[in-house]
Amino acid sequence: MNKEITLQQWKSFVEEKTRKKLIIKMLWNEREKMTLLLVPNMKINSVIHDDNEGYLFYDIAGERVRYPIPSILPDNLFIDGKINLDHIKSGDIQINQEPLTKKDIQLLENK
Asked: Residue 93 pLDDT > 70, yes or no?
């Protein structure tokens, strides 16, 4: 059976890695919904999926967000409130747009 972690465990881990408190925000569009872990002052209002560039995030003024988002959890990788560690190992789920190290993955497996 594959190892899974909860959203709260993932949030706690990302907070430790980024050394910042984070909030959970849900966004959705016509294609999908996603869960974001954001620093409270990040003002993300909408998301568009571009086939070439991936997810494009926009603020309330309609300007494209260019800074890294601590964690993006698309709906297809976040099922029943759990995150499968295989998605983290494969690099599908990242922290600040960087894949986790083997040491980080071992820490998550031991939670």
From this structure: yes
**What are the φ and ψ backbone dihedral angles of 79, each rounded to 5 degrees?**
-115, 130
Task: Tell me the pLDDT tens digit for each residue of 34-64.
Answer: 999 999 998 899 998 888 988 899 999 999 9
CA distance 26 to 80: 14
Of the candidates 37, 38, 26, 34, the one whose C-alpha atom is nearest the C-alpha of residue 54 is 34
43 in helix, strand or coil? coil
Residue 53 near residue 17, CB atoms below 8 Å: no
Region label for 54, one of left (φ > 0), alpha (ψ between -120 and 50) or beta (otherwise): left
